[in-house]
């Protein structure tokens, strides 16, 4: 690592970073390329040494590993462990890596054989329960979102390079939604997980009049009990609320409990 | 004060005269599930879009003088040294067309904290000094309780205040600027009948309120009920989402964050309006949180507004606009909370 | 266009009638240089900071107990008590513990770094009013930092005060701050008692709670003097406040002669961000130094 | 000298997803020539079972990070067809506009970031930042324009937020549309420059007779819905998509594979162009002819050129669409629709080819069964057989192993495969 610059007199090294993908849509990596306007600045901040989707050269000498996707097969577990060994800092990039993402929706059937048959019939295929990467290795930092928000990633990576502690907003999406002066989705008769979901996306979905699906997982003080009451009062079925709570895996146990309730009620 | 009367049709002329400036006013933002219109303040380009007979807007107009997010300063780095540049974030004057008396009173209250003797805030001041306010009389909605807070009429803080009286408007003119603008329209001097009519109109408005808050001895009651269990009842409901503070015309507290550009050439200090209901509002070094439960945070909001501010300025920091109660998904409303605290848990 | 409203530029209207004096100074920070820094313990460092402009430096005055906002551009801004003597004006010493975003970065900067300083803010310990009286300074942990300024002030005017006691407790000997100054304090006829929760091999002093020493001090003094002549200055973690202050009250010390310095989260120091509110009192303006009577009247203060 | 090589490329770079190439040639004899798809399956078709229909577009968009808009639109179309609902004309226009911009952004990404480095002899776009700054800047400009427009119309460039069953949650700002139209017009200069650049690239003259499958357009190009056609003369309706894709499994691939009249088929820009050359507007046609692409072209490497031609086509068409949108007042963004028990198919031409979603509902609108046929999965068999033929061709041409490795990689990249998408 060569020292290239300083900030307030403190030497700042340009870290070598690698991007890695497990089971995912690779959208989060693409978001990095979607940074057209600031891509070049980003490249001046870090040295990308491994990015299969974008470059041919690869090196196992990296300081920070951004891992996208969840683990759904044994070989991914192995790859992940190697990445962990090579990297100083492992960053879970996006909801798949943080919570299992949409991939974990198949877990809800508790029957992998059925799942396999549903798609591949009798053709033999290997898969296991979709899990976040933290189920296998120590994760140093999580960047939430499906997809990740480039402005947020840039901010986080700058802090990472500066060696600053990284904290996520502790308030729910509503806070940002109101600051964007949106009309509340509940007023429009739509469900929204904004009141319980961790902010940081700048109320991406509600600002487009789409209720939040909770891709960033729960806010620290998430009051799910009250959300259920609100939905009930607004004539939004438990199923619709559940569809959202379990979509990205962030609400884990709470969503599973609710599924039991909903299925019991059917 | 100088009063004038003009024909309802002249309203568009007034709008036209002012439209060389940027006009902010109530517009329709959509319809709710029941088809009821939803209003908010926005820039108005066309008189037809101005919905003067709005009941209440979802948000207050504060984004124009107390933005949710604001750059406090910019740093430029050069060779180990840095320069700091401060821009108060105002570059033009705005016309606020159609503010109700509650919102103008809210501004007057904010002035006391933000423009008072102790460290007046120039970011607010710069915008506040560039507001031309056309007030507009309202019809109370079911959630308005401004009369309880003494803010159903406003005595100062505007340029022009208009009250609809039949086919005419009764205008209270408070600034020379407003006077000169009215000179360019067709107006007449009010007669004695007009005065009576005006008084009848305002007293009729007063009779339309359906929502009440008993504020007598409230500061003391809040102290007495500090340990009351009612707070927990409300705390259980609260989502700690900050919606109430965001829509409130008088909530002004904030947090600050700094961020460095990716090329390290610049940095910014950004202010973001915060809310005392958010979980980390009162967390300090070492992780100690002075208000870890949502009930204590919610209580604090009432404390600040209905006790602390009263102590400091002899008036409450709540104008009774009802927005926080309307916006709160958990249906936590000021009148209900205060009533329950008064009664104590039974 | 006669209907065009004239833009009032607050940034340039300074000095004109109706404009607030110094309004443009709200975000103003003095540029200051870290002239020296050295570790006091594993987590605390002493920073000597000098306002760069000589005039500004001279004009910068403060009272013991006040704090400044220290800004590391792009990293953060946070309140710190001034820990040096008031006669040194804009040549400050801050003792800072590494706890989070801004302080961790501060820990990495070198001598010569330029920082921003604004303030001084807040109330102070009324040392002037304590002249001819005894002073009892009680500090727990980092609480010694804000007390160092009144200590200096008293040392510099030693003849004007009666008996001066410092009772200082820390968790372990390695956490003690300003150890190199204890000798000097003692030479200035100050009774210095130090106690730790847990001793190490080298520690020969007392082990236990601050309250034990305090009790001895109370028992040894003449009760009358204590009630009439003593002022107490207390600073430390919230739990300590409670015990110490209650003990002092029991010993007959009037509440308005007990002063504490409180810590809250602060983002402006200027009574605008509300983050430091206790009940609804601004710690940054009405505090951080409060007399104990006020503290009792603040809900959820300690 | 006899050609000898042993190429084993595990997890091919600069493609979306995980695939491997193996070629073993001994003494001029091709012993092995394989395209292998090792991507982990995610089981979207199972995930959807039991979910309310409104989940389908949202979840299916997550099949792919590049063509999430296409997937979202395919699901929406399947649902709307299932409920026998026809979207408003305005919705139709906005959807095409959105899809055009996805096509533009995806093609530019592929052409410049994934394909061009091979032609310029570098490992990634990164060195080009210094050596060919104008190329990189043009690519970034085009991509930014496309992405910005996706934000404006679809709410988000990736995993759109405004696209819902029945229409849109929100409409774009007309003032912004006007600005975008201007930017689109300005972008033609960058596209012309791109054409000039690509004209300098040496495209391998490899050919293999292939059956090309795509939608047949009646106006728009490329399209949402319509009839399915192949260059071998097969014509089917949208709901008969299974007869067109004929999915099967093979042990070398975790993705399903397709065939029609031959052992494999191809979809994508080249297939669209081969089937709809007459639907191109004059500027696109001109560029196509200039770059030597006329139907039916059987060189898979020409898919790159076809993508470039399509970029011009979608830009021209978008300019027109914006004109008509600006001329008509906004209607309601979204219509209500009746939930019905039944089955619906949505066929959409997404950047990599024709995409089918088929959804079956119960009377409450819950999904009973889901099937998604992805363009890349339809191409896999063709890629595989292309690699076989390419190996032989390389032997004939006497290429060395470095050259073979590069050209094999280039071939796979030319298909712009979206592998994680194909093994959804
Ligand atoms: C009047 C006053 C005087 C102080 N004097 C000193 C001193 O002399 N020496 C010293 O080391 N510390 C002092 N502090 C505490 C110091 O301000 C905090 O340690 C500092 O703000 C932490 O900043 P950070 O960015 O490193 O921490 P952060 O990363 O921001 O946060 C770490 C923790 O500190 C809390 N925190 C954040 N900002 C503040 C804030 N402004 N005030 C208090 N807590 C905060 C957070 O909630 C979190 O728990 C004083 C505080 C006050 C109010
Ligand atoms: S609004 Fe919700 S679903 Fe949308 S991006 Fe934010 S957290 Fe994710
Ligand atoms: S009172 Fe209501 S609006 Fe305010 S934070 Fe609590 S739930 Fe949110
Ligand atoms: S009530 Fe809360 S959010 Fe509002 S100004 Fe007071 S502290 Fe801030």
List the helices and strands and how they pair.
The complex is a heterotetramer of chains A (266), B (346), C (302) and D (424).
Chain A: E1 3-7, E2 10-13, E3 16-21, H1 27-33, H2 39-45, E4 47-51, E5 64-68, H3 74-86, E6 89-93, H4 95-99, H5 112-120, E7 141-143, H6 150-162, H7 173-179, H8 224-233, H9 238-245, H10 252-265
Helix pairs in contact in A: 9-10
Chain C: E1 30-39, E2 44-51, H1 54-59, E3 67-72, E4 76-81, E5 91-97, H2 101-106, E6 114-121, E7 134-140, H3 144-156, E8 164-170, H4 182-187, E9 190-196, H5 210-220, H6 223-229, E10 230-235, H7 238-250, E11 258-261, E12 289-291, H8 292-297
Parallel strand pairs in C: 7-8, 7-10, 8-9, 10-11
Antiparallel strand pairs in C: 1-2, 1-6, 2-5, 3-4, 3-6, 11-12
Chain D: E1 5-9, E2 19-26, E3 29-37, H1 44-47, H2 55-60, H3 68-82, H4 89-119, H5 126-131, H6 133-154, E4 163-164, E5 167-168, H7 174-199, E6 211-216, E7 227-230, E8 235-236, H8 241-245, E9 265-266, H9 269-276, H10 282-290, H11 303-327, E10 342-350, E11 353-361, E12 367-373, H12 375-397, H13 401-414, H14 419-422
Parallel strand pairs in D: 6-9
Antiparallel strand pairs in D: 1-2, 2-3, 4-5, 6-7, 7-8, 10-11, 11-12
The complex binds flavin-adenine dinucleotide and iron/sulfur cluster (3 copies).
One iron/sulfur cluster is lined by residues 145, 173, 197, 201, 203-206, 212-216 of chain A.
